[in-house]
Amino acid sequence: MLNRQTYYIREHVGFLKLSNTYDILDPETQEQIGIAKEKPGTLVQVLRFLIDKRMLPTKVFVYEGTDSENEANLLFSISRGVTLLNSRVNVLDENGQVLGWFKSKFFSLGGAFGVFDAAGNEIALLKGDWKGRNFRFLDSNQNEIGKINQQWAGWTKEMFTSADRYIISLNEQPSPGKAILLLAAGLAVDTVFKESNS
């Protein structure tokens, strides 16, 4: 799944969801190639009725294929602790080892966060437009290396649900380690930085 340049992410629709699930699809064929499931824990799920979930810890697990119950399919996970102002989000491999992390930027119109590898090198900046719906991956020279475009889901879904759909596209095929960080960053836009209580 990580040898691709484009991913179509489709959030599952639900009423009063306590956690999110995302299908990862091939944009051309609509074939499901992976699944991302948020597993925040029982106490955190209860607290989401009282506290904005962007402030609470969460963990998102990303699996290849459609079977999220088979741990052999686990590719990586995204983890965030309790946060007040400036979120740090870790990306972990299937064994729980840190592959990299994200750090949100203060005072950015539309939202932005840095994408860092395990050694602390910033490999990309993910920067949102003024509406916070479309994002660009920028390298250290401010060249675009990829983008995230939110897709219109129709009036009913846009008005009555928080379920999002978007395309993550990379300008060239990255190394497997970098591909994980960029895919994780695309998922983190919705699962960790933007999503509020449904």
Question: Any overview of this molecule?
Answer:
About 4% of the residues have low confidence. 16% of the residues lie in helices and 38% in strands. A hairpin with a 4-residue loop joins strand 6 and strand 7. It has one domain. It has a twelve-stranded antiparallel beta barrel with strand order 1-2-3-4-5-6-7-8-9-10-11-12. It is globular. It starts with 5 loop residues before the first strand and ends with a helix. It has 198 residues and is of the alpha+beta class.
Mean pLDDT: 80
Number of strands: 12
General form: globular
* Portion in strands: 35-45%
**Cα distance spanning the termini:** 30 Å
Please give the order of strands in the largest beta sheet: 1-2-3-4-5-6-7-8-9-10-11-12
Structural class, please? Answer: alpha+beta
Tally of discrete structural domains: 1
Whole-number radius of gyration?
16 Å
The helix fraction, in percent, is: 10-25%
Unreliably modeled segments:
154-161
Total of helices: 3
* SSE topology string: EEEHEEEEEEEEHEH
